[in-house]
Amino acid sequence: MEFQFDLIVVGAGSGGLAAAKRAASYGAKVAIIEVNKVGGTCVIRGCVPKKLMVYAARNKKDITSSEGYGLKSERISFESNILLKNIREEVSRLSNLHKNSLDKLNIKVFVGLGKFISPNELEIICPKTKKILKKISSKKILISVGGKPKKLNIPGIDLAWTSDDIFELDSFPESLLIVGGGYIACEFASIFKNLGTDVTQLIRGERLLNGFDEDLSSCLEEATVLAGINIMTKTQLKSIESSNGYLQSTLDSGNKMQTRNILIATGREPNLLPLNLEFLNLKMDGAYLDVDQLNQTSNANIFAVGDIVNKPNLTPVAIEQGRVFSDNLFNNKNRKVNYEYIPKAVFTIPEIATVGLSERRAKEIYSEKNIKIFKCKFTPMSNTFKKNKSKCMLKIVVNKLTDKVLGCHMFGETSSEIIQMVSISLNAGITKRDFDITMALHPTISEEFVTMYG
Ligand code: FAD
Fold first, then answer.
1. Would you say residue 171 has pLDDT above 90?
2. 288 contact partners, CB below 8 Å, separation of at least 6
3. Based on C-alpha coordinates, what's the Rg of the chain?
4. What span, in angstroms and rounded, lies between the C-alpha atoms of 197 and 229?
5. Is the model's pLDDT at 454 over the cut of 80?
6. With a 6 A CB cut-off, is 11 part of the ligand 1 pocket?
7. The predicted structure's pLDDT at residue 422
8. The domain defined by 5-148+269-331 carries CATH number 3.40.50.360
9. Rounded to the nearest whole angstrom, what is the distance from the C-alpha of residue 91 to the centroid of ligand 1?
10. Ligand 1 atom closest to Cα of 115?
């Protein structure tokens, strides 16, 4: 059978764009199908617009808490419509940059929803009219359709927002209930609170950021309370009703509360349904597509990358999977994605960053007696003249038997920038002694990483 393309990529997000561009750079004839704006979650409704909001919140907090530095701030006001409009313009600019680079590489972009009709063929459907716009075929197909926010199955759920809706707002609400304790929920709680919204955060369990090192969760909890965010633990939302311009939430305790809006941030799931995959009988890994080390599904011509596979759902991971896929398939390389020591951040204020094993996980793997913890918590110098005396925390998890550093965790300003660099050393197999013989850079927060003695 003659195919129109060497590769069809379904979804022009982080993973799909990276794979399409890399494949085309090797001379492959590539098509990409995208139902929304080119750029995907990260560029359009994730990392990028969120981080721009974090900068707004951080700038406001810095200015309004710096009277001790002689910076008076009586006249600071926040006009959320300006921020939201600027973010939308920036996101469009970035989307156009991606589109231009696809054009330059002769990658054909099809606008619409991709739907499989055979293992090598897809229909492109208009999402509004549901009409079939085109059928295209290819030797290989890469699925990179990403995830979507999970919705709670409770009465009135359609009245609530998901993270996608935040970037479509005209202005910020005066009060907001955020449901969820994961990184997206925590980041939005911090953004909204620092920009003037009254925030309550509802979590089902006892702690924020399940799965992160527990000292990081505790530091964030302290800072969250200090910032004036009302955290309600062991509480679930049971229903939502609209009432005089407010939303009324009923909690599992029977208590009711009113806020202008509600944001549901209780996790994400693969967005596979519109692809019509059932007839292909692809092997699944729970809700995710099962793939091997080459990101090949159980069908030899169909591959998958990004948030639809059961690996850390992060932009750099999706990008690397996409590039490795194309390097292997279109340039005969024999590459594998390195999933060791993936750094992660939570862009709250102050922020969290982490790489490697948490204390709990290291003790589970190597036994408690073989793990040594180095930890310090202090008020950073930048807070000396501030009313806000929030502390920072640095922690190193070490294997006592080999002296190998298994994890580094940090809570405090610029921790994401610091942990990105620390992750290089962990990847290279650094020991605690290497940290100890490294000269400190003074005065910094991160110098504590090389001056902690047990
Ligand atoms: P996506 O980037 O989601 O792209 C999938 C694309 O496929 C979308 O454009 C979608 O419209 C399209 N599509 C879906 N179905 C079809 C179809 N049937 N036909 C055609 N097109 C289709 N990660 C980080 O590393 N750092 C962060 O700080 C960070 N912050 C985040 C904040 C938020 C609020 C969210 C929601 C996510 C964040 N992430 C972050 C996660 C990151 O955005 C994702 O891991 C990453 O975008 C996954 O890339 P992907 O290629 O798998 O999918």
1. yes
2. 270, 308, 309, 310
3. 24
4. 10
5. no
6. yes
7. 97
8. no
9. 14
10. 18
pLDDT category, 389, cuts 50, 70, 90?
confident
The model carries a pTM of 0.97
**pLDDT tens sequence across 211-270:** 999 999 999 999 999 999 999 999 999 999 999 999 999 999 999 999 999 999 999 999
Ligand 1 center to 164 CA (angstroms) = 11
φ, ψ for residue 41, nearest 5 deg: -60, -50
Active site residue 442: yes
CATH class of 151-266: alpha beta
Which residue in 442, 443, 445, 452 is the catalytic one? Answer: 442
Q: pLDDT value at position 370?
A: 98
Look at the block and give the residue holding tokens 């349904």: 273
The DSSP call for residue 166 is H
Cα–Cα distance measured from residue 449 to residue 454, given in angstroms and rounded to the nearest whole number: 12
Cα(362) to centroid(ligand 1), Å: 30
Domains 5-148+269-331 and 151-266 share a fold: yes
Among 411, 407, 452, residue whose Cα is nearest residue 425: 407
Query: Mean per-residue pLDDT for 24-50?
Result: 98
* Residue 307 alpha carbon, nearest atom of ligand 1: 52
Model pLDDT, residue 399? 98
Going from N- to C-terminal start, the domains of the chain cover: 5-148+269-331, 151-266, 344-450
Q: Which long-range contacts (CB under 8 A, 24 or more apart) does 49-53 make?
A: 49/87, 49/90, 49/91, 49/167, 50/187, 50/188, 50/191, 50/347, 51/347, 52/83, 52/86, 52/87, 52/90, 53/83, 53/87, 53/191, 53/195
Could you give the dihedral angle defined by the CA atoms of residues 159, 165, 169 and 174, in that order, rounded to the nearest 10 degrees?
50
- Domain 344-450: give its CATH architecture: 2-Layer Sandwich (3.30)
30 touches 36 (CB < 8 A): no
Q: Does residue 391 contact residue 341 with C-beta atoms inside 8 Å?
A: no
Q: Tens digits of per-residue pLDDT, 136-160?
A: 999 999 999 999 999 899 999 999 9
CB 144 near ligand 1, within 6 Å: yes
Instruction: Give the distance (Å) from ligand 1 centre to CA of residue 13.
Output: 6
Q: Which atom of ligand 1 is nearest to the CA of 114?
A: 19
Closest of 399, 314, 306, 321 to residue 357, by C-alpha:
399
Rounded mean pLDDT of 170-189? 98
Task: Find out whether the beta carbon of 40 lies less than 6 Å from any atom of ligand 1.
Answer: yes
Indicate if the pLDDT at residue 84 is higher than 70.
yes
- Kind of pairing between the strands at 268-270 and 261-264: unpaired
User: At 432, which amino acid appears?
Assistant: K
Q: What is the mean pLDDT of residues 201-211?
A: 95
Geometric angle at alpha carbon 439, from 434 and 441, rounded to 5°: 130
